[in-house]
Amino acid sequence: MQPDEVYRLLSQYNEDELFYRELFFRRKDPVKYAEFMKALNIEEIHQRQLIIPDLQTKGYHPARFKDDFLDTKIHKNIYLQKHNRYTPSYEHDHEFFEIIYVMSGKCENHIFGSTDILKEGDLCLMSPSVKHSIWTEDGLIINILIRRSTIQNMFTTVFRGQNIISDFFANSIYLRDFATCLIFRTEGDQAVRDQILGMFGEQMDSDAYSESIISSMLVIFFNKLIRGYQNTAAYPQTVKRQNEAVSRIIGMLLDDPAHITLSGLADRLGYSAVYCSRYIRKTTGCTFSELLKKIRLQKAEELLKHTAMSISEISGICGYENPENFNRSFRQCYGMAPSRFRENNSEIQRKGTEILHDY
Question: Which CATH class is domain 63-229?
Fold first, then answer.
């Protein structure tokens, strides 16, 4: 489906938007609003998952969208949807990444205790656990929902390097509850707009190949964002300083997970070891040892998935003195031995199997 046709279809008001628009205007007249609310079919409201805050416990307004929300969608790793106009604003967060893109008009994104006005061409990339709410009357707003595991699999090949976007994903992957966002002001960049419409069109035309195609399109999309906007993308001022500091720490741990120590990290940052330890605990919720362990095991996970290195080699690269200690630590975290994890998740083995099937 061509971008212009996708845009035309998305611009049309759907049934839920018509409902929300009527709700919005009825609220301006207390009598008409009371009549409207009294006539609601609660069972239908639940089936359609309509957001009506005034229904309180009877309504549908989840505070957190879990990964199983994506299980209900056509594509379960990356899913694009339109944010319905006039949807009542309510605070929530997600277990997955979300991109908010303003195709036309504008929207209010209430986040980190302030309101950010997103205009046409603006894009907000949010990590899991970010609490926010959105409001728009006339804006055509596209949401792209992406599983954490999907971003993690992309990270080793797409987001490596010293730039604000790779820092964003490193923080979000290695710090499980690190809530942050990046704002891109693309000012109506036609290429960005058409790529999002292209992904949406592929989803609308869905077939057996669409999920793989959308995933590839998303990789290209992120690379173009890095190329075009890495120097202008910005954190909100309320979290900017903390994000930059944590990014430096994560970057140093990623550079040398096998040998880095708390005292060595503190020296490089110009801190005392005591202050460095307290700062890490305050900003990440982890001790230095806990954070280093997370990064070492994440590194091991990447190497098990994407390389043919031996378990012994991986344990050494990740800072374990012997494979037995590595096996024990990995099993405690993942519930299985590294060898079993590789059997279940290795891209090397999967590609080999695909080649054998081709013959």
Answer: mainly beta
